[in-house]
Amino acid sequence: MNDFQLTRTLDEHAAETALRTDVLSGLTRFPKELPPKWFYDARGSELFEEITRLPEYYPTRAEREILLERAQEIASVSGARTLVELGSGSSEKTRHLIEALPALETYVPVDVSESALTGAAEALLADHPGLRVHALLADFTRPLRLPESAGPRLVVFLGGTIGNLLPPERAVFLASVRAMLSPGDALLLGTDLVKDEAVLVAAYDDAQGVTAEFNKNVLAVIDRELGADFHTADFAHVAVWNREHEWIEMRLRAREAVTVKVRALDLVVPFEAGEEILTEVSAKFRQEGVRRELAAAGLELSHWWTDSAGRFALSLSVADGVAAGAGGTAG
Questions:
Q1: What stretches of the chain adopt beta strand conformation (E)?
Q2: Mean pLDDT to the nearest integer, 84-90
Q3: Three-state secondary-structure class, residue 138
Q4: pTM of the predicted model over 0.90
Q5: What is the mean pLDDT of residues 66-78?
């Protein structure tokens, strides 16, 4: 891959160190919690791909609908010569944008998985031999230094992943994105929207139990990586809608009193019957709330697109109101 370059900003022990820190911190506090990023080992990634195909899980289909319908418009408005994708994974959805951007020179995928970055780059370069791919092995929740590339740049953060961040974390994240942008650059942000509670809960508690297995996979990761003795059968998957904060909470609830040992941390963790671990928050948004959060970070929402059912939105915002193209909003 002559047009592929990889820059590592994480050392080879970064993931192990972060997991140890998160598990020690999360399982010794009350209530207990674990970050959702630890779902995604190889098995967890397979399960999530399965989730995206479930009838209950609408976000992936809704976002894909917008990308297919609006890719040309997004490309026209942004005029991007560099595309930066945070949490790029397989880069599958981004292909719609890459194919629609006639002036695109450089794609900068950012992910914590080196295998995902190299695999995606190989597939993209096979289809787009003139494209330059400069991958960053990095944690996008930390400040990033982007490689030199031609502007305008379009930074994309898809999948509604921003909803996994709590409001203070979102503020820090959006401010860090704003710091990456120069006048004329833009952010394309995916946000899942507030809707009927039954639809939301079903998306995180499917009839086939795939999401339950995905949720419990975090325990399997801790068992394997840190020598713990969690038994997934001891915990029940729970998904609830928090009306006050307008977010879904995924939890693991101990079916009975149990004690877990984490050998690598010399840690003993008692659970009472019914005690829960919070494993994911997935916030849902309204347009005005998105606009306010972007504005607080120095970004101005200029375009708003939804799928035909109004379930999911992609928004385009620009640095300090410097337009990335003509037009207003679309719904």
A1: 4-8, 32-33, 82-86, 106-111, 132-137, 153-157, 186-192, 235-242, 247-254, 258-262, 267-271, 276-283, 299-306, 312-319
A2: 90
A3: coil
A4: yes
A5: 95
